[in-house]
Write a structure and sequence with these properties.
- This protein has 135 residues and is an alpha+beta fold.
- 19% of the residues lie in helices and 42% in strands.
- It has 2 helices and 9 strands, in the order ββαβββββββα.
- Strands 1, 2, 3, 4, 5, 6 and 9 form a 7-stranded antiparallel sheet that branches.
- It is globular and about 35 Å long.
- It starts with a strand and ends in a 9-residue tail after the last helix.
Length: 135
């Protein structure tokens, strides 16, 4: 695997671009994730050498005010794109919540920061995220 990690966040109205890291260590990822708490922006971890039949391409988190939308760009058995997200069982179906000015289903937005960390570390280590975390 060849992994690339990067993104941006807003701090006091200023956009802070993170320097992309190739093949980051788990500690690098955790340090960057800790910096985004309470802020808004996007982080992406990408597998640059992906086999569409067996591994997802990338994992993104859109975040704002401690709300997190995780999206794993995966492929189904037929090679079609399948976006996997976290499931917020406490949110009402049919409701929407804005993240970075765009509406998303409230059931796909979580407030548990530990899930975000687990997903990014698992993707960095394996190139995938278990269906227990993202379905």
């Amino acid at each position: 695997m060849q992994i690339k990690f990067g993104g941006f966040y807003f701090n006091n109205g200023l956009r802070i671009q993170l320097n992309p890291k190739n093949n980051p260590k788990n500690m690098d990822i955790l340090m960057q994730l800790e910096m985004i708490k309470g802020k808004s922006g996007v982080l992406v971890i990408k597998n640059l050498v992906v086999d569409e039949e067996t591994h997802p391409e990338d994992l993104s988190v859109y975040f704002e005010d401690d709300n997190y939308l995780l999206m794993l760009l995966d492929y189904d058995d037929e090679g079609c794109i399948d976006v996997r997200t976290a499931n917020n069982e406490h949110a009402s179906k049919g409701e929407f919540q804005n993240i970075l000015g765009e509406p998303y289903g409230a059931t796909t937005i979580v407030q548990d920061f530990e899930i975000v960390k687990k997903c990014f570390i698992e993707f960095n280590q394996t190139g995938n995220v278990s269906r227990d975390l993202l379905n």
